Amino acid sequence: MHRIKRARSYSYMVAAACLLSAAAAPSRLAMSQPASSSASASLSYDFFKTKVEPVFLEKRAGHTRCVICHTTNNAPFHLVPLSPGATSWNEEQSRQNFELIQRVAAPGILESPLVKHPLAQEAGGDPHHGGGQQFASQDDPDWQALKAFVTGAAK
Ligand code: HEC
């Protein structure tokens, strides 16, 4: 009799623990892994290489190119330095950039820093970026390429 009672109270404890962790799970997911909640979008390497990397290399009037700061500074957005004399990244470097970009771009998440940070605040971007407001409006085709990348465009 005594033994049965003990076993029972143990199973209550297990049940309570399960309930607790079940209740905690959704919010934990939403906080730390927004990417996994949108199974439909994914980041395309081909799109990254053909449409996004050129944005990082392009000179915009009044601004420094992304590649200049983001190969050397300690911001969460980091790119592999270009090889001496090269004007773009080779295949291996692009693959590394594609891994690195996932620190600031989560599939399906329009709040991703890659989308918000270099965009002018008046256009819906972040209030401050060390590299300036590189995109004055959401009509900028380069900004649209960043957005399309995050929303899962493949070509
Ligand atoms: C003049 C240097 C400079 C240039 C050019 C520059 N940035 Fe930055 N960027 C910074 C600095 C400094 C930070 C870190 C401080 C901050 O958040 O602004 C940063 C941060 C970022 C972040 C990370 C935000 C975060 O906290 O997660 C992203 C994304 C970013 N930049 C995107 C870009 C893009 C895209 C371009 C080109 C269109 C660009 N930057 C050009 C200096 C630069």
The string of secondary-structure elements, in order, is: HHHHHH
Largest sheet properties: none
Bound molecules: heme C
Quote the distance from N terminus to C terminus: 69 Å
Number of distinct beta strands: 0
The residue fraction in helices comes out at 40-55%
* Beta-strand content bin: under 5%
Structural class: mainly alpha
Shape: globular
What's the total helix number?
A: 6
| Parts with pLDDT < 50 across at least 5 consecutive residues | 9-38
- Using only C-alpha atoms, the radius of gyration works out to 22 Å
Summed up, the domain count is: 2
Give a verbal description of the structure.
α2 (45-57) packs antiparallel against α6. This protein folds into 2 domains: 2-32; 45-150, no CATH class. The chain has 155 residues and is mostly helical. It has helices spanning 2-32, 45-57, 66-70, 91-101, 113-116, 141-150. The chain is globular and about 35 Å long. The protein is built from 6 helices and no strands. The structure holds heme C. Heme C (HEC) is lined by residues 64, 66, 68-70, 73, 75-77, 104, 113-114, 117-118, 128-131, 134. Heme C binds next to α3 and α5.
List keywords for this structure.
155 residues; mainly alpha; binds heme C
Question: Topology of this protein?
Answer:
Blueprint: H1 2-32, H2 45-57, H3 66-70, H4 91-101, H5 113-116, H6 141-150
